[in-house]
Amino acid sequence: MTSHLVDTLRARRGDASRLFIETADGARITYAEADRRSAQYANALVALGLRPGDRLALQVEKSVEAVFAYLGTVRAGGVFLPLNTAYTPPEVAYFLGDAQAGVFVCDPASEAVLAPIARAEGVAQVVTLGADGQGTLRAAADASRTSFADVPRGPDDLAALLYTSGTTGRSKGAMLTHDNLASNALALVDTWRFTPDDVLIHALPIFHTHGLFVAINATLAAGSSMIFLPKFDPERVIALMGRASVLMGVPTFYVRLLKSPNLTPEASSHMRLFISGSAPLLAETHREWRMRTGHAILERYGMTETGMNTSNPYEGERLAGTVGFPLPGVSLRVMSPESGEALGAGEIGMIEVKGPNVFKGYWRMPEKTAAEFHDGWFVTGDLGLIGPDGYMQIVGRGKDLVISGGYNVYPKEIETEIDALPGVVESAVIGLAHPDFGEGVTAVVVARPDATLDEKAVIDALEGRLARYKCPKRVIFVDDLPRNTMGKVQKNLLREQYKGLYGS
Ligand code: MLC
Ligand code: AMP
After folding, report:
1. Tens digits of per-residue pLDDT, 379-393?
2. Buried (b) or exposed (e) across 37-61, using 16+ Cβ within 10 A?
3. Looking at ligand 1, which residue's alpha carbon is closest to its atom 29?
């Protein structure tokens, strides 16, 4: 047995002297170099004590070294646990403790704050990696051998643990196996017709499924290359289109690109594919993009727990407002919440998924895992329908979730923090249409009559406790929250009442 994911990603790539990554400052890394560098990281991690199955948590800025750390972890048989750089120290402490991470990699600038926290959570080794690619982990890798015998791992062994917040309680770690990632990468390469000649503009963060597995694993599996940008910058992306072929983005990317006068048919004529996902792409954005560039954006649908589930067709019509068809090997059904029966075409219900892409369960949460599976199908929490033509549409969410710029924000987590503030009676957090982020996190707060709270005080109080993107963009004060006869807050009424708040 060898490493299932590593072997799958290598199987079709061909000539190792081909380019894998070009960085923003022009460095060019071949596949052969990536093999050597990831071997050095694997050796360094083993020397640090990482054993097969151990979790390596990492909260670092985007860099090629972080990609090597990902590949090195998997080659060493470890479980990769990337953390959003926006997470605050209390949030990081929870993930490290819950995952029982053996190694934590952080930015050198955060080491003084995070190393004691990590040690208090039982992490044995804390090493660093900065945005410039330097740090103690890098130094250890540089001093290590450039060859490594990949630790044998089978299809069902864990390769990654990705945390996703929940509608109740704390975040859950989604256990992703080697085959979850491998099968999804191959399905995407085939569906999107990736070839070794493709050049992907990589402008997404690499701590979530989209930028890490969809973008990087598909590139590796196809033996193609990517231009690796530290962050999304619309003008830079447009300037690169002349020598790239694919862009993967969240809807906010497309909304911001459309604002540039430099987005023209000529600027985008070298590109063959624009892909959008992680949040709903407005049909209006799809239409506008087609008018401005001549390209139809290909929208797909996925989740942390499942990787990618559906995609609009590469050939054939990419229908605005739909997420297309199940990927090869993946099955979807739409279930009636009342009868629990599968619904027919056009009927709205809960989307459930089955396939090699579906995760193994939530880390150390067997009850939560059991509650989210229904006869072996994973219950997504998304509401949708399958049209008569087979295209799937997502029409809403059965889960209380706001998606802002492609990041998930669970209202319960924000409400808990707001409710704990002095002077707050209760709160309801909702998502309202936002012209840039798709949805804007908005807090509706009932304050005690004697409280002197204002909008800024609430937002400032959340800073340091919650990642910035989770903080409300606006706070509205009300006397009471609307409730139904069961006493449940009627968020739909609040969303209706404040729908124009962000002016879209
Ligand atoms: C940044 N900010 C956000 C935000 N991103 N606020 C709300 N929602 C967001 N998504 C805030 C910051 O906290 C900061 O606030 C201010 O905006 C500027 O920060 P920035 O870092 O300069 O932001 P910017 O670079 O403009 O980032 C916006 C963005 C980024 C859209 C480019 O959020 C992004 O890359 N999103 C992609 C998310 C993603 O990869 N999702 C995939 C999840 S996987 P302040 O107050 O401090 O000034 C998944 C499965 C699937 O969902 O199907 O793919
Ligand atoms: P995450 O937990 O970050 O992986 O987010 C997954 C959720 O993002 C899904 O359950 C959907 O609600 C949403 N999502 C992803 N892609 C799309 C899409 N194309 N359209 C609508 N919602 C999407």
Report:
1. 999 999 999 999 999
2. bbbbbbbbbbebebeeebbbbbbbb
3. 405
